[in-house]
């Protein structure tokens, strides 16, 4: 068994046409999470048990077989070292040889085992082959600290039918690249925040999407190089409430539109209908083209009558299809049944009518 093992190990250094000698050439360092960013950036926290996986690109990376004629043959890999705000040499078991043009390394962090916290800053990376020869690449790696969220505020409160401005304060934000920010609540899918601006490394301006369900959310921010932070119970979404809404008539045919009157009686703590602005009214129901999925079907011709009354038309036959529908079978219409409604006021307040008190679409 010794000769085949020895031959396999020797082939690592003898078979590659790009192996021209013992002096390596380091051309770049890549963080696979940001392949197009140079110099590569890596966070000094997170990264899992082994740290962050990085790629060294170049040529003539030349491992050397050791003890090839024994029962425990091994390979000595090139040594990888960092120099900058701190000096560090990668442990041998954190280096992985792919081919003479590519090596991979796991860079330890605060949270890995073993752990190592590199101070933030620019680092020179060097590769030294076992038989001699070193290649250095200045400013090949930028170490950055993890983000920290210290405060989350919604300065204007929450608006049901429009985005609600949200301000994040902290440190370690990346003004040169947009982070991923999501709201998280048990039992619901993560809600990404799409509209955002990184004002500085201590301030981000974003917004909570319209119609985000009320409740308390954790907020997780992930920088592009991979490091993330979560602030539990970061914000509680709540909206001003309309009154005890009512609707009349309570039913209508599935083959024709029905005009409704929505009432909002005044009561302590409730918000009246306001004008000017656009009122949004939805029937929460499935349509025939997808009867298993409940959706918000917008009502047409919503009109403000007074602080206590709106008029609106249920597109019972058309659902989401353009009106008028000429097919008497109403193929895209609302599935017959009894459904609730949602009403959003331009003030940001909203209210609901439960299905038990809602509108019935009759066959």
TrEMBL record:
Transmembrane segments: none annotated. Residues 251-275 have a biased composition (Low complexity). Residues 250-275 are annotated as: Disordered. It comes from Corallococcus macrosporus. Gene3D superfamilies: Immunoglobulins. InterPro entries: Ig-like_fold, Ig_E-set. This is IPT/TIG domain-containing protein.
């Amino acid at each position: 068994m010794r000769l085949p093992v020895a031959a396999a190990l020797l082939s690592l250094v003898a078979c590659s046409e790009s192996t021209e000698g013992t002096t390596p050439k380091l051309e770049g360092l890549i963080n696979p999470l940001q392949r197009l960013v140079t110099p590569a950036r890596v966070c000094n926290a997170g990264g899992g048990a082994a740290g962050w996986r990085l790629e060294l690109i170049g040529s003539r990376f030349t491992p050397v077989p050791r003890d090839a004629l024994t029962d425990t043959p091994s390979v000595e890999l090139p040594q990888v070292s960092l120099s900058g705000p701190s000096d560090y040499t990668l442990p041998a078991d954190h280096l992985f040889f792919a081919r003479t043009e590519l090596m991979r390394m796991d860079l330890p962090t605060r949270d890995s085992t073993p752990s190592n916290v590199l101070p933030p800053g620019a680092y020179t990376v060097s590769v030294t082959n076992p038989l001699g020869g070193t290649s250095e690449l200045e400013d090949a790696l930028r170490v950055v600290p993890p983000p920290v969220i210290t405060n989350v505020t919604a300065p204007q409160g929450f608006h049901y039918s429009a985005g609600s401005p949200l301000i994040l304060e902290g440190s370690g934000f990346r003004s040169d690249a947009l982070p991923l920010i999501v709201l998280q609540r048990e039992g619901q899918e993560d809600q990404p925040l799409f509209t955002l601006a990184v004002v500085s490394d201590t301030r981000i301006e974003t917004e909570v999407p319209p119609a985000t369900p009320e409740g308390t959310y954790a907020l997780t921010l992930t920088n592009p190089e991979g490091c993330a932070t979560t602030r539990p119970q970061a914000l509680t979404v709540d909206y001003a409430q309309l009154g005890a809404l009512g609707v009349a008539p309570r039913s209508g045919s599935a083959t024709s539109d029905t005009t409704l009157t929505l009432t909002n009686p005044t009561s302590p703590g409730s918000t009246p209908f306001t004008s000017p602005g656009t009122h949004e009214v939805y029937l929460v129901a499935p349509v025939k083209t997808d009867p298993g999925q409940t959706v918000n079907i917008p009502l047409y011709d919503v009109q403000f009558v007074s602080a206590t009354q709106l008029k609106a038309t249920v597109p019972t036959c058309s659902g989401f299809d353009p009106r008028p529908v000429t097919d008497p079978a109403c193929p895209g219409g609302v599935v017959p049944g009894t459904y609730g409604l949602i009403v959003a006021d331009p003030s940001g307040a909203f209210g609901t009518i439960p299905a038990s008190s809602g509108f019935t679409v009759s066959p």
